[in-house]
Q: What sequence folds into this?
């Protein structure tokens, strides 16, 4: 048996204070964490949604004028839309049947491998410079990195001007570009679904399109560009840029929605 003097002296309320201190030590971080979460959620909810820039231009060839112009001079990364520049530049020189077959695949299936070949063969950024001069473009510049043709910067106004230039070519050269645009496959060479935008919104009318999509380097871009209506009456260009992290499906869906909003406004 222990000597009574060796036993701890019980102090009234000491155990309760000890338990209280432990409870406080545990509770304070939990409360802080909860308050922090609430504050962060409040800030997140009050923060504006990531901006999506959209530029829309419609040129009515029957009227001979631009009938819709929204942010037409704002610059975007072109992504695969620059393949129009590559093709337009290529047909200004003598092309073989093999060259035309390459151009057809590059445009109809948006084939990047063919674009790489033609970009390198024909001078890279010089292609953009020559197209700027040939089509009278105002706000288009070659990519800062000469090998990244998709980083060419352009505007909806300038892309519409490229289509006007294509439509002025002699028929044989014009058809080298427009035939594949009229036959643009549903699935691109990289497996991407490229019938968003114009093909979906104007499926009841003749169309010819060159689409563009890209993600990374600070932006997610989705573009639908082309000709719509009997006799290629309308040149339609919709360019968009979304915050990095936006899904490409969401970006292309927004472009399709923008194209659908145009359909009732354009005659057939």
A:
């Amino acid at each position: 048996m222990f000597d009574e003097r060796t036993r701890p002296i019980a102090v009234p309320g000491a155990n309760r204070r000890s338990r209280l201190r432990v409870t406080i030590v545990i509770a304070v971080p939990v409360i802080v964490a909860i308050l922090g979460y609430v504050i962060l959620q409040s800030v997140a909810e009050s923060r504006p949604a990531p901006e999506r820039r959209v530029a829309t231009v419609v040129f009515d060839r029957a009227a001979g004028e631009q009938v819709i112009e929204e942010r037409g001079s704002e610059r975007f990364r072109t992504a695969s839309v620059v393949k129009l520049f590559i093709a337009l530049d290529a047909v200004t020189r003598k092309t073989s049947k093999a060259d035309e077959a390459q151009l057809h695949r590059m445009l109809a299936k948006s084939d990047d491998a063919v674009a790489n070949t033609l970009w390198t063969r024909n001078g890279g950024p010089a292609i953009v410079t020559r197209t700027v001069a040939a089509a009278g473009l105002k706000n288009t510049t070659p990519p800062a990195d000469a090998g990244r043709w998709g980083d060419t910067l352009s505007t909806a106004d300038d892309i519409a001007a490229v289509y006007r230039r294509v439509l002025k070519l002699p028929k044989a050269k014009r058809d080298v570009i427009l035939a594949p645009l009229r036959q643009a496959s549903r699935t691109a060479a990289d497996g991407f679904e490229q019938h968003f935008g114009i093909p979906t919104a104007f499926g009841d009318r003749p169309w010819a399109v060159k689409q563009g999509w890209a993600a990374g380097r600070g932006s997610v871009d989705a573009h639908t560009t082309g000709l719509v209506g009997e006799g290629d009456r309308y040149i339609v260009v919709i360019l968009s840029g979304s915050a990095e992290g936006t899904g490409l499906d969401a970006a292309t869906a927004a472009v399709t929605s923008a194209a659908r909003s145009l359909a009732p406004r354009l005659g057939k």
